[in-house]
C-alpha cells in the first residue's frame, strides 16, 4: 500500500454488501434525495453590481450585448441599462420570477394592467395571525372561530381550513374566506 492509503479495499461482487439480498433480509427502497443548488455568494453578487454602477453608457451597452447576445435599444438611458443588467445578474444567481408571475405579465397589455391584476390577486389571500378571532352570525346565532397556528378552532374542534368550519356551521359548501368576510364581495354592477 502506498502512503495515504487507509487499507480499505473497494467492495467487489463477492463481498457480502453487494451480494443479492437474501430471503431473510428484505430489500428496502433507497430513499431519493434531491440536492438543490448551492447558495449564491451574496458578497460577490453585490461586488459585481457595484462594478456595474461604475460603468459608463458605452461599457454598459457592451455588457448588455455580452449578456443578452444583442444590442440594447438605442433609446435606453444609462439608469435603465444598469437596472436591467443588475436584475439579470440577481435573477441568474438568486432565481428569476415564478412562472405564474411571468404568465401574469405576459397577459397584461401594459404595466398598469399588470399592477392592477397583481393587486387583485393579492386581495384573494388573507393573512391571519394565530390568536385572531373571526365572527359570523348565521341563522340568528353568533359563531366565533379562533385562528390557531395549525388551523381553526370552533365549538371545541380543530379544523384544517375555514371552508371546513363554514361547512360545519351551515351544512352546505361555502368558501370559508368568503363566509367569514375575508374576501371582498363585489357585485356585478360595481366598478373595480
Task: Summarize the structure in words.
- By secondary structure, this protein is an alpha+beta fold.
- Among the domains are: 42-94; 133-179, no CATH class.
- It has 7 helices and 4 strands.
- The chain has a 4-stranded antiparallel β-sheet with strand order 1-2-3-4, with helices on one face.
- Strand 2 (141-148) and strand 3 form a beta hairpin.
- Helix 2 (57-68) runs parallel beside helix 3 (78-94).
- The radius of gyration is 29 Å and the shape is elongated.
- The protein starts with 41 loop residues before the first helix and ends in a 13-residue tail after the last helix.
- The relative contact order is 0.06.
